[in-house]
Amino acid sequence: MAVLYIIATPIGNLEDMTDRAVRVLSEVHTVLAEDTRVTAKLLAHFGIKASVLPWHHHSTERDFQKIQQLLASGKDCAYVTDAGTPGISDPGGKLVELVSQSLPDVAIVPVPGPSALAAAISVAGIPLDEFLFFGFLPHKKGRQTKLARIQQSDIPVILFESVHRIRKTLGELAGMDKQVIVSRELTKKFETVYRGSAADVLKKIPDSEVKGEFVIIAYGKK
Fold it and tell me: Against a cut of 0.85, is the pTM above it?
């Protein structure tokens, strides 16, 4: 039977791409990609020539049927997101769910590697044997509910945040008197880790010209 590989890709530094990931991407019939443009650059960098199909948050049942037909006919496929390990705040989880339900004989094989979540945890320097992970907070609906859970949590909470909302989120955490560890541009040239109260870290992040994505670990009180 066919195999669906779930492949982790670099979160910034291309040297973090594993040999196994390169080999598998070179061998599969089709690469499924969250963003075909991003994946095309990755494949070109490693000299990989492969057929690429999109699979993203807006993919339809018809899109899945194409993937289903490939796997059902015995053709191995690999799924990659824009960066990092699929299944965390991306459409990878839905793909795995659909394949496991409709094609139970297809093996779903992880090819582990880079993860912004794991990278941030590794440099946190606080106990993280248990934590809550919320990914990206909702922009509007449900945001206040998640913020209330963060405020009430007696274990660390980990979030992803974009450059567009980092100051807003840190301001909300400052109102809770939270301590934070904020990682920016992990594995890239301007990698930075900020530590301290949310209010203090907010002052360290400039109002403009902030780039990259962030991982926030919020915990305790000031």
Answer: yes
CA 216 to the chain's CA centroid:
13
- Report in angstroms the alpha-carbon separations of 106 from 23, 37, 53, 192: 20, 27, 19, 41
**Stretch 12-36: mean pLDDT:** 97
Measure the CA dihedral 158/89/119/5, to 10°: 150
Distance between CA atoms of residues 52 and 36, nearest Å: 7
Residue tagged 């400039």 (tokens): 206
Q: CB of 80 within 8 A of CB of 32? A: yes
- Geometric angle at alpha carbon 90, from 183 and 87, rounded to 5°: 90
Sign of CA dihedral 82, 58, 132, 210: positive
pLDDT at 209: 59
98 with 91: CB under 8 angstroms? Answer: no
From the list 13, 11, 185, the residue with the least C-alpha distance to 114 is 11
Rg (CA), the chain: 19
Q: What is the pLDDT of residues 184-200, one digit of tens each?
A: 999 998 899 999 999 99
CA-CA distance, 161 to 136, in Å (whole number)?
A: 6
What's the token pair of residue 201? 């870290």
Q: Which domains does the chain have, with CATH numbers?
A: 3-111 (3.40.1010.10), 116-219 (3.30.950.10)
pLDDT at 210 over 80: no
d(CA 215, CA 191): 12
Please say whether the beta carbons of 52 and 33 come within 8 A: yes
The predicted model gives 66-91 an average pLDDT of: 95
